[in-house]
Design a protein that fits this description.
The protein has 184 residues and is mostly helical. The chain has a single domain, classed as Hypothetical protein af1432, CATH 1.10.3210.10. It is built from ten helices and no strands. α1 runs parallel beside α3, α2 packs antiparallel against α3 and α8 packs antiparallel against α9. The radius of gyration is 16 Å and the shape is globular. The site of zinc ion has 4 residues, from loops.
């Protein structure tokens, strides 16, 4: 097997694993899209910018919510996908034993100290979420939406300098989301 073939097959295995783990999950918007669409969108975005030939970054992007939201574990990821992919996923996995508000604050406080890969995944995750907030809005109040945008901006501010194009894309989407909320 060539290296390129091996990379593609590992990436497909990550997609299969994530799809199975998220099989009962839906996104929050009105169309209730299959959850797997979200991690695929996060990986897709990184494949377009920030990828640099690093298939393991795309694998971790595809897997970024499996430990937080399903019964998958860091150990399981390590055994199947290797140490580096598992570490990237664990780096963007929130500690769900903490109350929500604390978890959110911790992301803002800790993101700058994380690996570049973790910061890229977080940035792409935020872009995908704000995109969905505009195009497939969840049943949130305007206040909840504004809170999410404020929090996202604080995270991106904290990781500033990670990838300027992705940061600009995020800022543009936030402006669009705010304009909608303000009724423009
Ligand atoms: Zn996510």
């Amino acid at each position: 097997m060539t290296q390129a073939t091996a990379s593609v097959s590992r990436l497909l295995d990550a997609i299969r694993f994530a799809a199975e783990k998220h099989r009962d999950d839906r996104r929050k918007g009105a169309i209730a899209a299959p959850y797997i669409n979200h991690p695929i969108a996060v990986a897709e975005q990184l494949a377009a910018s920030g990828f640099d030939g690093d298939t393991e970054l795309l694998m971790a992007a595809v897997l970024h919510d499996v430990v937080e939201d399903t019964d998958a574990t860091g150990e399981g990821l390590r055994a199947r996908f290797g140490e580096r992919v598992a570490r990237m996923v664990m780096d963007v996995t929130d500690d769900k034993t903490l109350p929500r508000r604390e978890r959110k604050t911790l992301v803002v406080r800790s993101i700058a100290g994380k690996s570049r890969e973790a910061r890229l995944i977080k940035l792409s995750d935020l872009i995908a979420n704000v995109h969905d907030l505009i195009h497939h809005p969840p049943h949130w109040t305007d206040t909840q939406k504004r809170d999410y945008l404020d929090w996202g901006e604080a995270v991106v501010e904290a990781l500033r300098g990670t990838h300027s194009l992705l940061e600009q894309r995020f800022a543009k989407l936030v402006r669009q989301a705010r304009a909608r909320l303000d009724g423009h």
